[in-house]
Design goal:
The complex is a heterodimer of chains A (255) and B (259). By secondary structure, chain A is mainly α. Chain A folds into 2 domains: 1-37; 58-252, MetI-like (MetI-like fold, Orthogonal Bundle), CATH 1.10.3720. Helix content of chain A is 83%, strand content 0%. Chain A is globular and about 80 Å long. Helix content of chain B is 82%, strand content 0%. Chain B starts with a helix and ends in a 6-residue tail after the last helix. In chain B, α5 runs antiparallel to α6 (95-110). Chain B has 12 helices and no strands. Chain B is mainly α and 259 residues long. Classes of the chains: A mainly alpha (255), B mainly alpha (259). At the A-B interface, α1, α4, α5, α8 and α9 of A face α2, α6, α7, α10 and α11 of B.
Amino acid sequence: MSARQDRRDKIASRAVQIGFVVALIGLWYFGTAYWGISRILLPNPVNVWHELKDVIGSGEFLPDLRVTLTELAVAFAISCTAGVTLGYLISRSPYLIKVFEPLLAGFYSVPIILFLPLYVLFFGLGPGSKIALGTTISFFPIVLNTIAGFGYVEKIFITAARSMGASDFQMFRYVLLPAALPVMLTGLRIGFTVALLSILGSETIASLEGLGHRIVHLAEAMETARMFAYIAFAVVIAATLNSIVSSLERRAKRR
Amino acid sequence: MTDAAQLKRALIRHPGLSRLAVIAALLLLWEIAARWWIDPTFLSPPSRIVASLGDLFNTKGIPAALQITAWELAVAFAISVVVGLVVGLAVGLSRFSNRSLMPIILLLYGTPQITILPLFILYFGIGPPSKIAFGVTHGIFPIIVTIVAGVQNIKPILMTAAHSMGASRWQIFRWVIFPHMIPTFFAGMRLGMTGVLLGVLLAELYVSTAGIGYFTQLFTQAFDPTKLLGLVSVLAAMAIALNEIVRRAEVHFGRWRTD
């Protein structure tokens, strides 16, 4: 395929993408403004835009955002500490890996969202149950990837470093850590993403405050335009956080 | 040799035994904690949960709720697989549609769908259709993405060889693409099953009038941890069984490939 044809192809595929988005917004606008789709079911995009400006301009989103981000930070901090520590300890012995890795992986395949009713029973409707769920869900990818990172370092590196007289600290700092870091960082990123999703999810299902709670509250009040604005806001926040974490991961891996 | 040394050697040879011991120790700890330390309105010992499983199934509405949830899972999974396969093949088999549509699909896959759960209730009501629809949104994207990746991983030399030997489009599909797609298809099904389980259970827990979500809420509000833990265990067992079925299928049908 020639370069010119390739370029034409690229432009055409961009056109399809832009066309898709334009058609979607166009259908949305005309459907609600002229074709009589109920405003309660689907608000007009112009209204949603005004509501979004109002939500951001008035700073109304701040308390909810603060609650959600605090829950996320606490949950992620706990699961990182526990996951990395336990994962490292398990990875020190091939026997422990054989005992615990299948156990943890098996547990990971249960949809952990099922624990939410239990956590609500134990910790109530407040942030406690969200932190517990976020911690549980993000713990597994972190601990499993930590085990995979530290547990499967190539033997030859370790033997070489030992025979050249590396101390335990040097072994950790210059052999184990660089070998394990990429895998571990992937685990941390996945853990972060699932913690964010599960916290938003548990706020949606049962809560008193937070972004997920706000969306449900507006849905129940039939204020759909404002709800759409909050959904857009939450999606942008989630996308921003995820891309920050991904770029941190890439930067750390390049070192 | 003493018994202790023999036991130690057996454990070292079979890590599975140690694993069982770990599980047993955890259950024992739970049993002791629930019996003597923790308020029984919050936690029940595992022995009582198992003993009351029969009671749970006799509770009015529980068998029906489990049936409804199983039905929702089955329908959502079937829709995800069929539509995901068709879309995945359509997007994967053409370079142009792959280039233009894949970013849109990845964008949709990347958005946190949980934020639009209230919309599904608004559009599809609080009955099974909203759970099925939400399950489909979670199950379909991993399937599409896996199928597209699978189609693209077919070695070009195989396509060229088939072409040069004069295979028709259908023959290429039947004898080159199709056999290569089988392992991918099952890998996609496994990821799709995880997604469908998550989507349906999320929607069930959010709002439900007759499904398991209704009962988890009921038992939570009634501070009945025995029945709640029993129901959660039954659902977890169901999820594990479903995951295991598709995982076995993946291993079984992926065997022929040697590379």
